From TrEMBL:
<keyword id="KW-0109">Calcium transport</keyword>
<feature type="region of interest" description="Disordered">
    <location>
        <begin position="288"/>
        <end position="312"/>
    </location>
</feature>
<feature type="transmembrane region" description="Helical">
    <location>
        <begin position="384"/>
        <end position="410"/>
    </location>
</feature>
<dbReference type="GO" id="GO:0006874">
    <property type="term" value="P:intracellular calcium ion homeostasis"/>
</dbReference>
<keyword id="KW-0406">Ion transport</keyword>
<dbReference type="InterPro" id="IPR004837">
    <property type="entry name" value="NaCa_Exmemb"/>
</dbReference>
<keyword id="KW-0106">Calcium</keyword>
<feature type="region of interest" description="Disordered">
    <location>
        <begin position="1"/>
        <end position="43"/>
    </location>
</feature>
<feature type="domain" description="Sodium/calcium exchanger membrane region">
    <location>
        <begin position="106"/>
        <end position="270"/>
    </location>
</feature>
<dbReference type="Pfam" id="PF01699">
    <property type="entry name" value="Na_Ca_ex"/>
</dbReference>
<feature type="transmembrane region" description="Helical">
    <location>
        <begin position="247"/>
        <end position="268"/>
    </location>
</feature>
<feature type="compositionally biased region" description="Acidic residues">
    <location>
        <begin position="303"/>
        <end position="312"/>
    </location>
</feature>
<comment type="similarity">
    <text>Belongs to the Ca(2+):cation antiporter (CaCA) (TC 2.A.19) family.</text>
</comment>
<feature type="transmembrane region" description="Helical">
    <location>
        <begin position="445"/>
        <end position="464"/>
    </location>
</feature>
<dbReference type="InterPro" id="IPR004713">
    <property type="entry name" value="CaH_exchang"/>
</dbReference>
<keyword id="KW-0472">Membrane</keyword>
<dbReference type="GO" id="GO:0000329">
    <property type="term" value="C:fungal-type vacuole membrane"/>
</dbReference>
Length: 480
């Protein structure tokens, strides 16, 4: 679409904080969400009003009422058009109504389960829009904070409801789904697309230094789960009656240490050693080489315009923050109804809470990240794919899980790092396999199939375990 210059004063006015623009009149109405792109010349106003995520008719009107209404629709429109899964947003009001009217627990769980998936995608979109204006360091910190917001909200709702076993399982499930399922799908689909020719196969590459650093942190988080389990076993064999209190003290102290290490990791990644995490992908290098060979096709001016088109936000930070607040409230409401129906689901299906937390709930929170990681892997940007997969696991292991231990401490809930033995073993084995897989800085579709296979084995094991057997053990661990 070809932009044209505005011919009057009203069409050139913008609201910088709402649109992320540098207009001179801060009180003027919103336009398109872009600083140098104004009304398009082609297409009907109805088409732009409904489908154009860069421009909405009415945002340049003289009346502030019309401008405000048009921009409100503009924000809603670009939010709805931000992801293909947003068609599931219709489930949000239905899920809330189902919870209020106390429908069948299976219906309440299912509807709110599907309602949270698009909300997670919108949350990710709004976070990225805000990060555009904050730069790499603060933007990365914001993504680290809100990247797992859905898991955090669902877990706090479960913790408040006393569902400690669900909280522990969902934290472990988020880590395993990112380490095994997401990374496995990245390796599998990326490896198939970029497999080379028969007899002359190729592998995708990524930063081995970054992978080894993050795997070392995952090994540390694995140790933070193994040690409480070992301490509990030793005290149980000795007949100690203070097992529960000792594990609580140990877990809370360990949680504080892990949070400190997570802060140091953020400083290491975003400030002191950011160069290690800012590595050009093979696809970018190939694109640059192709551009150098064909200067007549891609001029510097058109290349800069394309880069600007891709990187510039479609709405400003204040509008994105408003979306973030609204979506967070909706996630909290849906999560509350979702968690409240878990006990009835377990009683009706004999499905273990460990399976619900380990397999089902991570699908809700990580759906958007799964799609993003696989897409960039297919585009041969494995550094970004690894950052999404392993980086999210680090956030859960070193940030969210220790934080929930402290939140449980505040709520007087006995949330600990003492996980069920099989869960601890599954996590430790998964970290070991992933470490051996990524240590050479190369990947292929066979390694991806192996990781997916291990995740499937773990999922089948938890699915095959009767609910009463697993949940009885988890109840004893929680000290109930």
């Amino acid at each position: 679409m070809d932009p044209t210059k505005p011919t009057d004063r009203s069409s050139s006015e913008r609201t910088p904080l709402l649109n992320g623009e540098g207009g001179s009149n801060a009180g003027a109405g919103a336009a398109t969400g872009r600083g140098r792109h104004h009304r398009p010349t082609g297409g009907s106003n109805l088409k732009h009003f409904l489908l154009n995520h860069r421009y909405t008719p009415g945002t340049e009107h003289d009346s502030i009422v019309v401008r405000s209404a048009a921009y409100t629709w503009h924000v809603a429109k670009v939010t709805l058009l931000s992801s293909y899964v947003n068609f599931l947003l219709v489930m949000v009001p239905v899920g809330i109504i189902a919870g209020i009217l106390d429908w069948n627990p299976t219906a309440v769980f299912t509807i709110n389960f599907f309602a949270i998936i698009p909300l997670a995608a919108v949350l990710s979109f709004a976070t990225e829009e805000i990060a555009h204006k904050l730069g790499d360091a603060l933007g990365g910190l914001l993504n680290a904070t809100f990247g797992n917001a859905v898991e955090l909200i669902v877990s706090i709702a479960a913790l408040r409801d006393g569902q400690i076993e669900v909280v522990q399982s969902s934290m472990l499930g988020s880590i395993l789904s990112n380490l095994l399922l997401v990374m496995g799908m990245c390796f599998l689909f990326g490896g198939l697309v970029h497999r080379g020719t028969n007899g002359n196969g190729t592998e995708q590459t990524f930063s081995a230094a970054v992978a080894q650093t993050t795997c070392s942190l995952m090994a540390l988080s694995s140790a933070s789960l193994v040690l409480p389990a070992a301490l509990y076993a030793v005290m149980d064999q000795s007949g100690s009656t203070a097992k529960r209190e000792s594990i609580l003290v140990f877990s809370r102290g360990t949680a504080i240490i892990l949070l400190i290490l997570y802060v140091l990791y953020l400083i290491f990644q975003l400030r002191t050693h950011s160069n290690l995490f800012d590595i050009e992908s093979p696809s970018n290098i190939a694109a640059d080489a192709a551009g150098a060979d064909d200067e007549t096709t891609q001029t510097p001016e058109t290349e800069a315009a394309d880069n600007e088109e891709e990187s510039e936000p479609v709405m400003g930070p204040i509008a994105a923050l408003g979306v973030l607040v609204v979506v967070t409230i909706l996630v909290a409401i849906c999560a509350d109804y979702l968690v409240g129906s878990i006990d009835d689901i377990v009683a009706a299906t004999n499905m273990s809470k460990a399976f619900i937390g380990l397999i089902l709930l991570p699908i809700v929170g990580n759906a958007a990240e799964h799609v993003t990681a696989v897409v960039v892997a297919v585009r041969n940007n494995m550094d970004l794919a690894m950052s999404v997969a392993i980086g999210s696991s680090i956030q859960i292991a070193l940030g969210v899980t220790p934080f929930l231990v402290l939140v449980g401490w505040i709520m007087d809930k006995d949330m600990t790092l003492r996980f069920e033995t099989f869960q601890t073993v599954s996590f430790a084995v998964s970290v070991l396999v992933v470490t051996y897989t990524v240590q050479d800085g190369k990947s292929n579709y066979l390694e991806g199939a192996m990781l997916i296979g291990l995740y499937t084995i773990i999922a089948v094991a938890f699915y095959a375990t009767p609910g009463d057997a697993m949940d009885t053990v988890m109840t004893l661990i929680a000290g109930k």
